[in-house]
Design brief:
Layout lengths: L3 E5 L5 H15 L16 H6 L3 E8 L2 E12 L8 E10 L8 H15 L5 E2 L7 H9 L14
Parallel strand pairs: 4-5
Antiparallel strand pairs: 1-2, 2-3, 3-4
Length: about 150
């Protein structure tokens, strides 16, 4: 089994992170008919890398980046029990490395970062028909909570 290291991303990783972002978009495009044609971007990666309110993590195998994810501190709604929570995003594993437990390692590191900052809850969004992603998140302990619905007019 290959050794996988999880570390904080640096600006030197930006080129690979931008490629990973396009991988996320390509994977999610079939689930979202509202996305504009390419090229699009989901994230402001330089800002995330610089933010003290977020951490971008990467998975590294044999000195190659093979996965990513971030957690950022979000303000909760005024009616929630918690004041802040960790919002997860940019969860990506290179296709040739899927099934190696990398997503679980990234999620565990995100949980650890959030807990170290006193956060008691993590949240994320996933497309309702993206069953592989849903299974991966459920395996890590996540459960469905709210389903956002839409209709074109």
């Amino acid at each position: 089994m290959k050794e996988i290291a999880i570390r904080v991303a640096t600006p030197a990783d930006l080129e690979t992170l931008l490629r990973f972002e396009q991988g996320v978009i390509t994977a999610e495009r079939p689930f979202d008919p509202t996305l504009r044609p390419d090229p699009i971007q989901y994230y402001d990666l330089p800002a995330l890398l610089a933010s003290p309110q977020a951490v971008v993590l990467v998975a590294e195998s044999q000195q190659q980046l093979v996965g990513s994810g971030y957690v950022r501190i979000q303000a909760a709604k005024s009616y929630h029990l918690h004041q802040q929570y960790g919002y997860l995003g940019f969860m990506y594993v290179e296709p040739g490395h899927r099934g190696e437990g990398i997503n679980g390692l990234l999620l565990a590191a995100c949980k650890q970062w959030a807990a170290a900052r006193g956060l008691t809850e993590l949240r994320l969004e996933v497309y309702a028909h993206n069953q592989p992603a849903i299974r991966a998140y459920e395996k890590a302990g996540f459960a469905g909570h709210m389903l956002e619905m839409r209709v074109a007019v």
